[in-house]
Design a protein that fits this description.
The protein is mainly β and 384 residues long. Helix content is 5%, strand content 35%. The strands form 5 sheets. Strands 2, 3, 4, 6, 7, 10, 12 and 13 form an 8-stranded antiparallel sheet that branches. About 1% of the residues have low confidence.
Length: 384
Amino acid sequence: MAVLKIFPDKDATLYSLFPNMNTGLDEIVEATETVFAYSDPNPQTSRFLIQFANEDLASAISLIPQSLFNSGSTTSTGSWNAKLQCFIATATGLAVTTSINCFPVAQTWDMGTGRYLDEPISTDGCSWIWAGYSGSTIWSAPVGATSSFTSSVPAGGGVWYTGSQYTSSVTFSYRTNKDINLDVTNTVKAWTTSSGTIPTNKLPNYGFLLKQNLEFVDNKNYQPELKYFSVDTNTIYPPALQISWNDFVFNTGSSTQTILNTLPATITLAQNPGTFYSESINRFRINARPEYPIQLWQTESVYLNNYYLPTASYYAIKDLETNEYIVDFDLTYTKLSADSTSSYFDMYMNFLQPERYYTILIQSTINGSTIVFNDQYYFKVING
């Protein structure tokens, strides 16, 4: 199965309270509701923009076979999908439920080089009022797009398309994980073609706008703040666009190897040199056998007999230091394939943060039991 990630080309937050302030290089992007005075609430909001470069998007999409791109559903259970991921830095003041909406941006914008509350504030990029530097181009909705603001703040806050096929949303309850993992497949498909080129007769790629569902709420008790790491973060949690597609093949050809159906089992990883450049694409092969193989009359050791893992077998990737899943087990997109040699899966290293160690987990259902194998399958990604 194939999973890869691309990282944003630019991002920024738009603040209604600071209508000319640019934050293009800030380490945080946020969707926040704020009331400053209980006697005169004057609610304020913030929204954030994220855009991925056309070149990166086209390169990723071109890896998906055209038949998969064009066929079937484009939802999370279809032949391929794209998910926008943002990782929470701070969450405060949340209601019982808080919702974030995501839309495709309808106007080009400049990132700028500002940070939150620079002194003096930076005005060389997008802000609440301006899509470019202050005094250049205001936010203006083209045909088919919209914007949203209140009479108590200047007009602005971005413009976006609202078609139901392009709108995504997530609702957080008070105790759930606040990371964003939104299915944006339809928007990405509208930006691209199966050959990886950027069409002129579909939506232009100006990125995504994320905002809270309820804004400008005149209520001192409603002030949810959701702050996420930006592309300029100094952590391992920048936003990402994860693209996955189903390339599962189980074709063993003329191989005489059988499918493993005995526990306990020994699983090892082949073709793992331990270090990869970011540009690498590696095929990891799985060596599998019973821990106590049946003794046979043959001219070589029974411990050398390799087995296929059952079709209900999957891989996952964890960051070795934080123990967090980078790619979780997925019944569609991380399924192990098989050819005449062994079970295997392919991995694109460019979506992993360089100069870090990772571990591979293998999950398989064998003889009615689901087992996760984690036998120090480590590797490191380095800068090329």
